[in-house]
Amino acid sequence: MSVAILGGGAFGTALAVALSANGPVTLWAREAAPLIATRQSPRLPGVTLPETVTVTGDLAQAVSAETILLSVPMQSLSGLLAQIDDPLTGKALVACCKGIDLATLEGPAALIAHAKPKATAAILTGPSFATDIAHGLPTALTLACASEARGAALQAQLSTATLRLYRSSDVTGAELGGALKNVIAIACGACIGLGLGESARAALMTRGFAEMTRLATRLGARAETLAGLSGFGDLALTCTSDHSRNYRFGRALARGETIDPAVTVEGARTAEAVVALAERLGVDMPIARAVTAIAHDGRPVPQAMQDLLNRPLKEE
Ligand SMILES: NC(=O)C1=CN([C@@H]2O[C@H](COP(=O)(O)OP(=O)(O)OC[C@H]3O[C@@H](n4cnc5c(N)ncnc54)[C@H](OP(=O)(O)O)[C@@H]3O)[C@@H](O)[C@H]2O)C=CC1
Ligand SMILES: O=C(CO)COP(=O)(O)O
Prior knowledge:
50% of the residues lie in helices and 12% in strands. The protein has 316 residues and is an alpha/beta fold. Strands 3-2-1-4-5-6-7-8 form an eight-stranded mixed sheet, with helices on both faces. The relative contact order is 0.11. The site of NADPH dihydro-nicotinamide-adenine-dinucleotide phosphate has 26 residues, from helix 1 and helix 4.
């Protein structure tokens, strides 16, 4: 089965390198010329695409593949899908982005399912830095698809010797785990940037995990999915690593450092979407509210942290 990846940034490039171990791969980028010329994405320096990866700027050609991975930032996903006239009947569309769409408050797989109802929507998510995948370091991810049979086929097609996929039918749990952990990672970066210490970060991770589980289960996810790679696994990675852009964003906010708007920080916009979703559903999400306050409302980070500590004492 042929594979195409839409999005020539860090993750799309890394996936193209990894999946080329299984056979030919097509990589589509909106600005394909530099990628064709250099075989390197500026978003993933030092990684050269193998010859078995065909880079194209022709979207119609790319979506002729049977399995299509969508690896653009979450807030760009609906626009990209709208550019594809083809209903993509029978194809597998695998979301590789992490977030919640601000316009619809949907996760990536739900958004794909609504935009292309004649295709099969799935999601590939979990703890994995693009650089690790591209360099062939061992990585385990969740491949979630509502159809058990399509999920099993995708699991086999997209696993490699170093990219180990676990299968799930809980698409909601997988997409929310990946989206929500980025919000908590911003809070953890802010905590460390403010010098509040590692004990405070562990508390934020734990209470953040409670918050993630509360919202996800309210939306029909299984709690055990949140405890898996796509939730707990990715939370652990993203909240503790300098490689994470979300973590670094929170740390920079706390330190008053300049933020580069060209860097993809999914948790910033997703925090806004989460707050809106949680309010609609009556779910308490204090850490997401704090992240929205520091990222968008100009609330100073020390005050936002104090707001969290000042909340009434409660049962765990
Ligand atoms: N990097 C990582 O380690 C991982 C990332 N992810 C997820 O993958 C998704 C993509 O992130 P990542 O690749 O890292 O981000 P990058 O910032 O590295 O790249 C984003 C890419 O998307 C392209 N893009 C943006 N908007 C559009 C659009 N409307 N149409 C077509 N292309 C578009 C950009 O093009 P241009 O360069 O022209 O701006 C760029 O090539 C995110 O949801 C992220 O959470 C998941 C796991 C790991
Ligand atoms: O999702 C990721 C790791 O699993 C990448 O994290 P950042 O987007 O924070 O860099």
